[in-house]
């Protein structure tokens, strides 16, 4: 399953996924239990401009939250972070990112 998640949007489009054409992606939701940074790193540079918003949960292990935040800012997103009170002991954060126009 993880290998499928890591494939880039471009590869998915080549396979004929109708929802992944050159149309805009209004919201990309990522929920991969600890591998969210790898998924973001798998997005090709040319595909970032297709994404308007990203929503994900980040488990802050080994500075992962900071790395995700910096990557999203580098890709021209405004980043909002909220700590999940129910999962505070697990260092789990909800991250929302909106493209800066």
Quick summary:
The chain is built from 5 helices and 4 strands; from the N terminus they run H-H-E-H-H-E-H-E-E. With 101 residues, it is α+β, with helices and mostly antiparallel strands.
Number of strands: 4
The residue ranges in which pLDDT falls below 50 over 5 or more consecutive positions are 1-6
Approximately how much beta-strand content do the residues carry?
Answer: 15-25%
Order of helices and strands: HHEHHEHEE
Helical segment count: 5
**Percent helix among the residues?**
25-40%
* First-last Cα distance: 34 Å
The pLDDT mean sits at 82
For the largest sheet, list the strands in their spatial order.
1-2-4-3
Please describe the biggest sheet, giving its number of strands, its sense, and whether it closes into a barrel.
4 strands, mixed
Rg, rounded, reads 14 Å
Shape category: globular
SS-based class: alpha+beta
């Amino acid at each position: 399953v993880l290998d499928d998640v890591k494939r880039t949007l471009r590869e998915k489009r080549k396979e004929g996924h109708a929802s992944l054409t050159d149309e805009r992606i209004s919201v990309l939701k990522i929920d991969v239990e600890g591998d969210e940074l790898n998924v973001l790193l798998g997005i090709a540079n040319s595909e970032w401009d297709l994404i308007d918003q990203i929503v994900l949960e980040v488990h802050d292990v080994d500075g992962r939250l900071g790395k995700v935040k910096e990557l999203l800012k580098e890709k021209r997103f405004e980043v909002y972070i909220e700590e999940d009170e129910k999962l505070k002991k697990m260092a789990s954060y909800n991250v929302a990112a909106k493209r800066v126009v």
